[in-house]
Amino acid sequence: MAERKSEFLFDWFEQTCLLCSNSVAIIDESTGLEVSYGDLLDKVTYVSEILQVMLDPEASETFDGVPLVSVLTSRSLATIIALLSLFHSGAAFNLIDGSIFERNSKDVNEKLHAFTHPNPQLMIVDEANLLPLQQLSFATALPPLIVVDRVGNIVDVTQAKRRPDPIVPMRTPAERSLAYLHYLSGCLGKPKGVLVTHRGLMNALRECKEVFGLNEKDRALFHSDLTSETALLEIFLPLICGASVVIASSKTKKNSERLIEVVHSYDITFILGLVTLFDRLTVKGWTGKANLTIVIDSDAISTSFYDVIAACNRVFHVYSCPETTLCCATYLFPKHNPTDTVASTTLGIPVGKPIAHTTFYLLDEKLQEVSDGESGELYIAGYGMCLGYHQNKLQTALKFVPNPTTVGEQGLGKGVGIAQVPLDRRCFKTGDVMRRGPDGQYILERRLDDVAKYKGYR
Predict the structure, then answer these.
(1) Residue 116 per-residue DSSP state
(2) Res 317: pLDDT
(3) What share of the chain is helix, strand, coil (3-state, %, to 5)?
(4) In this predicted structure, what is the pLDDT of residue 345?
(5) Residue pLDDT, tens place only, 415-424
(6) CA pseudo-torsion sign 72, 263, 41, 217
(7) To 5 degrees, how large is the angle CA 293–CA 437–CA 306?
(8) Are 25 and 240 in contact, with CB atoms under 8 Å apart?
(9) Rounded to whole angstroms, how far apart are CA atoms 455 and 35?
(10) Which pLDDT tens digit goes with each residue over 330-369?
C-alpha cells in the first residue's frame, strides 16, 4: 500500500477504505459478523452526518473550537464506528469502558465521574450500557445521548438540539488540536485527564506502522480494556494499514483456553498486550505461533516469555507514556537466545531507541545529562507531547517542564508559567530511571515511585 502524507487519522483511514474497499476490516468473534472497509466507511460517514448537525464548535465547552464527546461502550464494532465518526465530524472523544458497570456497584458513580469529562456536548452510549447509566444518581445531569446498538447503528437520539447549519467536517484540523481526552488510573489519587493532540497520535501511528510492518494480510486482535491506550492502537493501527481487526468478546478475554482457540482459528498475526497475558496462555500449554507478531508494554518480563519470543515471528517491546502518546520507543527482541540480551531481569527491561520526532534526556538529581551507562531520570520531548492534564494546573506544572536544551538548566523543573511554553519547548518528567548503552539503546531500570503498570495503566 502506498505511503500517505496526511497528518490526520481519518484521512489515512478513508484512503485505506478506498484502496481496500472489498477487504475485511472488522470481524466480530462473538457473532461472526464481518464488515468490509467499504461498508465500514459508509457506517462511519452516516453517523458523522448525524453528529455534524448536533455538535456546536462555537459552544463555550469546546477545546479551541473542538467539541468533546464522551463514548460509553463495551468493546465492539460500535466503539470503532463512534471514534472514527467523531474524528470525521471534527470532534474529540473521551472513551469510557462499559465494563465499569460489571464491577462493584457501590463505586460506579464515583468511578464514572472520575473517568468522564464533566461537560461533554454529547454522549454516545451503546444499548447494553444505557439502562445502567440512566439508573445512576447523576443521570438527570446527562448530556444529550446518541444510543447505538452493538454494530454501531443509531437507535435513538435524546434531548439533542439540531443545528440549522451543519458544521463542515474537520478534515484538516490544527495538528496540535485535541484528538482525545484519556484518563489515567488514579492509583496515586484522583485520575488525571491527558489531552492528546492529532500530531502526537499520527506520529505514533506512523512510526508503529513502519516498525511493526502491518499490511493487508494481517489480522490484529482487539482485546484490551477500553480504559487502556493500548485499545486505541489495536483499533487505529490495523485500520490505516488495511489489516483486519478481530474483536474478542469479554468471555473470550477472560478465558485463556478460548483466547488460544481464537488466536489460531482466526489466524491472528498481531497482538498487543502485557506479558501477563502471554503468561496466562503459556500456563494453559500455549507455545506461540510462527506467523504471530507480538508487541508488549510491560515493566517486567517473566522467564517463560522467552520461549514465546523464540516461537513467534517477531516480538517487540514498546515504551509508552499516555502523556507522550501511545508509543515513545521500540525494541525488537532477537529471535535466538533472547536471554543473552539486556532483557535479563538483573540488567533491566529493553526500551530500544526513541521513535521519530522524539528525544530522550537522562538527567541526574541536579538536572544534568548523565553519561552512557549511568542511570538518570527520563525526560521526553517531541511531537507526542500532550497539551497537559485537563483542569489540573498543579500536576501539569510539576510533570511538564521547560526543555533543558531550549531554556537552560535554571528553567527545568520549575513549572512556572508552563502553559505559556510552546509544546516544542516542553519535556515530560516520566519518573522512570533508565540508562543508555553504547549502542544508543535505552534500558528501563525502575520507577522512582515504584508504581507498576496494571492493565496498561500506571
Answers:
(1) S
(2) 93
(3) 30, 25, 40
(4) 44
(5) 445 666 777 7
(6) positive
(7) 35
(8) no
(9) 28
(10) 999 987 655 555 444 456 888 999 999 999 999 998 888 9
- Is the separation of the CB atoms in 267 and 219 below 8 Å? yes
Model pLDDT, residue 114: 64
* Residues of the chain where predicted confidence (pLDDT) is lower than 50: 169-171, 342-345, 409-416, 454-457
The mean pLDDT value of the chain amounts to 85
Q: How far apart are CA 354 and CA 441, in angstroms?
A: 9
From 48, 26, 44, 43, select the one nearest 35 (Cα to Cα): 26
What is the per-residue burial (b if ≥16 Cβ within 10 Å, else e) of 7-26?
Answer: bbbbbbbbbbbeebeebbbb
**For the range 309-313, what are the long-range contacts, defined as Cβ-Cβ under 8 Å and sequence gap of 24 or more?**
309/333, 309/335, 309/338, 310/335, 310/336, 310/338, 311/287, 312/288, 313/269, 313/289
Alpha-carbon distances, residue 5 vs 8, 171, 202, 206 (angstroms): 9, 14, 11, 10
Alpha-carbon gap, residue 129 to 101, rounded angstroms = 8
Q: Among residues 69, 157, 79, which one has the least CA distance to residue 119?
A: 69
Say what the pTM is: 0.90
**Cell for 321?**
507514556
